[in-house]
Amino acid sequence: MSTRIRRLVVLLFFATLALTGCRAASHQASMPNVVLIFTDDQGYSDVGCFGAEGFVTPHIDELARQGTRFTRFYVPQSVCTASRAGLMTGCYPNRVSLFGALNHTSTNGIHPDETILPELFKSKGYATAIYGKWHLGTKDAFNPLNNGFDEYLGIPYSNDNTKYHPVFAKEMPPLPLYDGRKIIEYDPDQSQFTKRCTQRAVEFIHKNKDGRFFVYMPHIMPHVPIFASDAFKGQAELGLYGDVIEELDWSVGQIMKALREAGVEKNTLVIFCSDNGPFLSYGSHAGTARPLREGKLTTFEGGVRVPCVMRWPGRIPAGAVNDKTVCTIDLLPTMCELIGAPLPKAKIDGVNAWPVLAGEQDADRVAPLFFYAGQELQAVQLGHFKLHFAHQYLTVAGEPGRDGKPSNWGKLTPNSLTQSGVEGIASRHGYRVTQTEMALFNLKDDPGETKNVAGEHPDMVALLSELAGPIRKELGDKLTNVQGNAIRPAGQAQ
Predict the structure, then answer these.
(1) Active-site position among 49, 80, 308, 327
(2) Catalytic: 135?
(3) Model-level pTM?
């Protein structure tokens, strides 16, 4: 590797340390309220200002006009539990042993020794609430009220883990709806999820307007099966999926209205984003990620790049479009910066992104991003360059599904339901397994990852390959049969 490249690596390393360690007093002084809206399987282009077609999102678009639209905002893994683990801990999900998607049989969850976002807010006197899907453990030890939240209304895992599951409906127990630690309903009306969670969030904002609060809204929609309430059903040109997104947009409008009425709009940071890309095999009941490649369950841009809008008057630029790299694992250290909370004692992977969010001209995420699928390190990204190592991935098999069924639904066999590993996931959800060789993409010119430019940039291939070495040693990599030496266990409960 050239001396110039090595010097760049050293400079990037020390710049990252400087960003992470920065504790600017001006940021601590304001200590904003925070509303974090986290939708489920909403694709990159499933928002009006990101290019949506067939439905409208005026409230999210207004959020963008009053704030900043982030066009290169990422999640660390493109699947439910892993994505939430990264958001809550500031770590790659593999570091805390939470990847894939937990279900009603899972006995693992977030470890009690992990310091997560709501606990940091609590340490600074904030009231905290979660309304929606938790997905970090089903046992009581993992209940949100045991992990920093004051209030909880929602479900412990995905809404397809029910009688509505397209494949395993007969094996599924009734879906529990929790209010705090108590199950208040089984198999609730899913068309009311968005409305009920929004109403509780509005009440919480008004109740805590004289203090500081953190509201986390991990919406249950638009994960399949999708439902809209009667007020939105049949309203969107696109059909039911559009109805669902328009109701989520209504929810954003209700939250903003509550903030205005409570008199706290100016000192509230509102973040809107999705947990991963669209579940493409479900076709008409799934979103899109134009112009990005693939979707959920992959490390291509359509799986890990999500729509994001942030608004904080006077602190985050209004009407701006920001193409700098930010990842959800960066939100925890950024919140620590803003509220003056110490970083967790255990190692995290995110960096303080406040200079980027604030629109500072020369600010960017100078640390690389590593993208895992399960326990495979599949891609490394630095700046506009992204290197995929040779790996298998899932792509839609045949025509996308319709009416809540995945692609190839009619071709499922009993053997399909018992297969394990990537082949089993593929067969049950209408995907086929395919292969990519090592490939380098310039995301600035080619966000759809269509042109392999590895031959034109051998130094970048060498740099990104070298950057992968240390993270493999820490977190492991099944592609290269490396066992990680810095992996922390998940929590376990019977």
Answers:
(1) 80
(2) yes
(3) 0.93
